[in-house]
Amino acid sequence: MHAVTPPSAAPPQPAARLPLPRKPAALAVPLVYAAAILAAGAVPPARQLLWLTLAAAGACAAATAINRVVDADVDRVERRSAGGSTASPRPVDSGRALLVALSGTLLLLVAAGQLNALALWLSPIPVLAFVVVPHTRRWTWAYRAFLGLAQATGPAGGWVAIRAAVEGPTWLLGLAAGLWVSGLDLLHAPPDDAGDREQGTPWLPRHPGPRGAVAVARWAHAAAVLAWVMAGWATGRAGWYFGGVALSALLLAWQHARLTLSLPHVSRPRRAWSPGGSVSLVILAATVLDVHFYG
């Protein structure tokens, strides 16, 4: 008889590499540029755009790395961390993530310092938000409101980078971005409900349920559109800008209609393209066109 050779042990799985910045970390970046253009009343000089880009890149890298470490336990049961399928069991490389977080934070600080003194002084605020926000999902149903506050720092920072001042449009642009991202995250949340229950997390949509979460997202997006309109009035924008806001409202309405029709089947994988997720690009394009034609 031939001896049975035991199967060789499977090679250990390498630590998961940090992916490219996940939504919403990079989702609102176009709104940072839109805010900078609104602040300048034109496309800013190349030097300012370069440092603004580096600051946004550093912030995205830091946010993604911090989120991966803090939410490693939650991501194991959340479908979104693996594109709609069961999350990968491979562990997060905490050392690498910490290095990325520190490097991103340093890049943000250096770039902000090259823009102006106020931008440098305020730059620790988004980093603090990146650390605090992932923890809020463990103790409050309003986690996505905190997520929106973190995302609001991007466009607000874009305004401060150009004007070196916190003014009315700073708050309006930040509020619009925060409400938009929070609403989108709520719309994408129902398929994760089973994982949320397994983890015992208290946030929406567990309370008041998927339909209630969609209703909250609807109001958040309506308020975001209103904030963009008010920001346009405050900065003296014209037809192209408001046309972009109107198109954004239609895209969000389309997103809500699609989800409302599929609510009985919210556990199915989500489509790759999200109409509501394109809003930031629409706002940026409309802003560029508006300043080009109207100054």
UniProtKB/TrEMBL annotation:
Q: How does it sit in the membrane?
A: Multi-pass membrane protein
**Cofactors that this protein relies on:** Mg(2+)
Coiled coil (residue ranges): none
Query: Where found?
Result: Membrane
Query: A single Pfam family, by name?
Result: UbiA
Family indicated by similarity: Belongs to the UbiA prenyltransferase family.
Tell me the protein's name: UbiA family prenyltransferase
Give the species. Answer: Carboxydichorda subterranea
Please name the taxonomic classification of the source: Bacteria, Bacillati, Bacillota, Limnochordia, Limnochordales
